[in-house]
Amino acid sequence: MKIDPASPEHPYVQLAGLLRERIATGEITSVMPSITELTEETGLAVGTVRRAIKILVDEGTVHTVPGRGTFVTRR
Predict the structure, then answer these.
(1) CA nearest 7: which of 46, 53, 15, 66?
(2) DSSP 8-state class, residue 73
(3) For residue 16, which of 29, 41, 55, 62 is within the disulfide window of CB 3.0 to 4.6 Å?
(4) In 3D, which of 29, 70, 28 has the Cα closest to residue 52?
(5) Are 36 and 74 in contact (CB under 8 A)?
């Protein structure tokens, strides 16, 4: 995933959009990559990745299970 540091859009918003797109295309079908995997893949800080995931949780796209991970919500 490529985050554009020159974009006027905040990195966490960019990441949320990229993850949403991956879910929509079926690239991510059930379990989201871990926060560690996403920080390594994007180079973003843990807090930034968490903010992106929170956007997806708030809109109902994914849900988190403490100690287990983040999962795509079935609709």
Answers:
(1) 15
(2) P
(3) 55
(4) 70
(5) no
Is a pLDDT exceeding 90 seen at residue 75? Answer: no
| Alpha carbon distance 45, 27 (integer Å) | 23
Local structure of residue 61 (DSSP, 8 states)? S
Is residue 24 within 8 Å of residue 30, measured between CB atoms? no
Strands (E), 1-75: 62-65, 69-72
pLDDT (tens digit per residue) in 44-72:
999 999 999 999 999 999 999 999 999 99
**DSSP structure class, residue 66:** T
3-state secondary structure of 28: coil
Residue type, 61: T
Taken in order 29, 9, 57, 32, the sign of the CA dihedral is positive
> Considering the entire predicted model, what is its pTM?
0.93
- Average pLDDT over the chain, rounded to whole? 95
